[in-house]
Specification:
It contains 10 helices and 7 strands. It is an alpha/beta fold and 219 residues long. It has one domain: 3-Layer(aba) Sandwich (Rossmann fold). Strands 3-2-1-4-5-7-6 form a 7-stranded parallel beta sheet.
């Protein structure tokens, strides 16, 4: 019997990339047995402010970070589209390229709380499974639409998620570091240390390319 590839997807602005993105992605790949885990930097985010760093700068930082995390893959398809970065469109292109693969979109609990506002969110579930990363002790506290979604689509274990072609939602606890890109940008704007928050190669790149310092101080 043919075993379909199981591909994990983590989208975001990665402005900048940091351990709060990288370490959960690595753990998820290990614990869920993804054949691939792709990072998908978005070009024009729909539900958040536009990135401070340019697309080229974010790619440079991602490439440096992935030298420390070689098991992760950089997928730049959204950066190549000069249009809003809708997950629905991205998943359609992935299905066209990998028709036998099963996909699982990784997102934090905060992002999942807004999932019912995503573009064609119900159709997104027909194209992928969802892995909602929840930190220990966090409350779901979801809108009614999402509570109803969980009643229909929630699964309780990794194996069921792996076997589902699409539409399964697993709430999964990971001890992810509490780091945000906003926190890093604010520290850099104040010339404070960011040591230990992101890969050393990215920290050194930012020391030579103070994109956040310049942007923040001009506001």
């Amino acid at each position: 019997m043919t075993v379909n590839r199981f591909i994990g997807l983590l989208g975001g602005t990665f402005d900048p990339i940091h351990y709060g993105h990288l370490q959960p992605a690595r753990l998820a790949k290990q614990q869920l047995g993804f054949d691939e885990l792709r990072l998908l930097p978005c070009h024009l985010p729909v539900h958040r402010d536009q990135p401070t760093a340019s697309a080229q700068q974010r790619v440079q930082m991602l490439e440096l970070a992935l030298k420390e995390f070689p098991e992760l893959i950089l997928d730049m398809r959204e950066l190549k589209r000069n249009s809003p970065s809708y997950s629905f469109d991205t998943l359609n292109t992935l299905h066209a390229e990998c028709p036998d693969a099963r996909f699982c979109w990784l997102l934090g609990l905060d992002a999942f709380r807004d999932f019912n506002h995503w573009y064609r969110w119900r159709q997104v579930l027909s194209l992928t499974n969802l892995l909602v990363i929840q930190r220990p002790g966090w409350s779901l506290d979801l809108a009614d639409e999402l509570e109803e979604l969980l009643q229909r689509h929630r699964v309780d274990d990794i194996q069921t998620l792996r076997q589902s072609p699409a539409g399964a939602v697993l709430i999964y606890e990971l001890n992810a570091p509490d780091i945000s890109s906003t926190q890093i940008r604010e520290r850099l704007a104040r010339s404070e240390s960011i040591q230990g928050l992101l890969p050393k190669a990215v920290e050194e790149w930012l020391a030579k390319n103070p994109v956040y310092l310049k942007k923040e101080l001009c506001k």
